[in-house]
Amino acid sequence: MSRVAFVVDEMFEDAELRVPYDRIRQAGHEVVLVGREAGKRLEGEKKKEHVETEAAIADVEPEDFDALVIPGGYSPDHLRVDAQVVDFVRDLVDGGKPVAAVCHAGSLLVEANVVSNRTVTSWPSIRTDLINAGAHWVDRAVVEDGNLITSRRPDDLSVFSDAILRQLEGRIPPRVQPSKPAEGDGENIDFDADVPIH
């Protein structure tokens, strides 16, 4: 079975941690919550989830893990200022291991400089940041560009988790060859009125 790191800090999006965490553990894999320090109690932005980090970023190495998950919310914005977290993300992506980022977690991918010439999705508010970092942005529930998995929002967590589990089984798809965006991809973004901005 695989060992999967979740990098997390204050105000993570509750469901974006809980849903993939539970799915990965139910599949028999080990999950380790990695934060800027070990033993720190963290609260989700909706205050539904409370977790405690199990390892400090300073005490882990990319080779300790088979994959990485980055929940969204405000957590990625806190993590992107930590050079050790940024290096950890970059090393896992560059090492060809599955790295999954949902919603606002794309901001941490931008900071790690790993989205150039990659096809990704995200919460619409960071679309321009990803494009400016060289990414090809599309509006889809989940995008797998080689080992890089991205999703838009909590509504996408089922297919996001499915993609993570497939890649943990070794089924990493080839890199995406960007083409002209299909209708609805990138040009016409559907801002759902009932989806809260977080």
Short description:
The chain has helices at residues 14-26, 75-79, 83-94, 106-111, 127-132, 157-168, and strands at 3-7, 30-35, 41-43, 50-52, 55-56, 67-70, 99-102, 119-120, 136-137, 142-145, 148-151. With 198 residues, the protein is α/β, with parallel strands linked by helices.
Structure commentary:
With 198 residues, this protein is an alpha/beta fold. It is built from six helices and eleven strands. The protein has helices spanning 14-26, 75-79, 83-94, 106-111, 127-132, 157-168; strands spanning 3-7, 30-35, 41-43, 50-52, 55-56, 67-70, 99-102, 119-120, 136-137, 142-145, 148-151. The strands form three sheets. The chain has a seven-stranded mixed beta sheet with strand order 5-2-1-6-7-11-10, sandwiched between helices. A two-stranded antiparallel ribbon has the order 3-4. It has a two-stranded parallel ribbon with strand order 8-9. Helix 1 (14-26) runs parallel beside helix 6 (157-168). 45% of the residues are buried.
H-E string: EHEEEEEHHEHEHEEEH
Class inferred from helices and paired strands? alpha/beta
- The 3D shape can be described as globular
Q: What is the helix content?
A: 25-40%
Query: How many angstroms separate the termini?
Result: 33 Å
As an assembly, this protein is: single chain
Strand runs, count: 11
Largest sheet, strands/sense/barrel? 7 strands, mixed
Strand order of the largest sheet: 5-2-1-6-7-11-10
Low-pLDDT runs of 5+ residues are: 185-198
Our Rg estimate from Cα atoms comes to 15 Å
Number of helices: 6
Average pLDDT score: 92
Strand content: 15-25%
